[in-house]
Amino acid sequence: MKQAINSFISRHELINAGDHLLLAVSGGPDSMAMLHFFHNMKEDIPLFISVAHVDHGLRGEASKKDAELVSSYCSRLNVPYYLYEADVKALKEKEGLSTQEAARTCRYEWFAGLMEKLGADKLVTAHHGDDQVETMLMRQIRGSLSGRKGIPVKRPFAEGWLVRPFLAVEKSDLEAYCERHGIPYNEDASNQTGLYLRNRIRNHVLSFVKEENPKAHEAFQWQSEVWAEEEMWLQSEAERFASGIITRREEKETVISLPEFKKIPNALQRRVIHLILNYLSIKNQLQIDRSHIESVIGLLKNSHPSALLHLPNHTVVEKSYDHLIFMINDSADFHRIDHFEPQELAIPGETELPLGKLLIMPDSPQADKNASEDSVWFDMDKLALPLIVRARLPGDRMSFYGSNGTKKLKDLFMEEKVPKRDRDLWPVVTDRQGKIVWVPLLKRSNEAVVDSESGRVIKLTYQIYT
Q1: Was 150 annotated as part of a binding site?
Q2: Same domain, 347 and 330
Q3: Which domain holds residue 325?
Q4: 420-439 confidence digits (pLDDT tens)
Q5: 455 annotated among ligand-binding-site residues
Q6: Which biological process annotations from GO are given for this protein (predicted)?
Q7: Is 30 annotated as a binding residue?
């Protein structure tokens, strides 16, 4: 076992001479074997080791016995020992987490703080080869997109690294090591319960896998390392494509171009969706799985130009013509208003509206000034002032500059692919008599056109919020 672990450490460059190792020791056979192993390793290379133990307060007297066992063994080996009594139940209720999620959060937040306090270089955990097999099977069963890569051998953590040198060996190796060296340990009775998927795999599936391949843990570890490298490349490709299709990215909203998304190779489209959902889930704690990604794919395949999808944790995906909008709707201040009251426009003046800002100012009379993308010019003497800005109304129609007849605003919004959620908030500028003279960013009317005879001219500019 020693040779296998040392070879694994060397191959992955997990530990260096002079490292301060913070060992996460629970009191079970795996972590107790790890404590003994690294205590002995100090005879071969200079190391400093400390032990961190977390009492999650979930198993009553059994938890206390674990803490006492680890403390006693650390005293025997003359190793610094640190205890954290976590309030898992309080965090679970506060954050709405499962018991396991809350326990893990408590544990690793404390580990990070303790590493910084002690100046430790590495956090070492006793995850072994059987844990790797269980994890990869569990993620495959759940349909995790990146589950094939399994438990990483090492990853950045706090100001140093989290390393797992025991992935090279099986649990039976560690139990035999404890037996051979007379190392005390406690068994966690909760590992035998069928409440958790990991336990069911361990107790009912793992033995079958090992019957077929006694070295299954080595095969799974090899696959995990290969897939981790491939995953890194695929992730970088997904990020590269995503950066080219995102048209707007905010804390609670990301918008992508659908025509550009469809150009992405099919093999990466799901990863790009996963990546964008992950942008939103960092604070939202959405556990993204296969069903969420396939739901978004289904939304894209919907033939209707507009559609809405609701995912867990207030996550909403909206298809709106050439755009796909990912957003979080989790608080009252984020709920969009659905209307605004009509307002008179002062000349000159500036008016704040739900989607943008409308500015009016006098301008020089030039016949070529009538309309641009975000601005419009009117002959004041041909207008029935004051101008009014309001939301659309049922049956609204307007004339278009340079055309005969009129058209419904409803048809204009559809032709210009204005998102449904914006239509009731889109500004409509009318004169005193209610005649529509301008729909910002879309069309101006044939009213009050500036010509060579115009004397007084006003310029209206609409600046949409970004």
Answers
A1: no
A2: no
A3: 251-334
A4: 888 988 999 999 999 999 99
A5: no
A6: tRNA modification
A7: yes
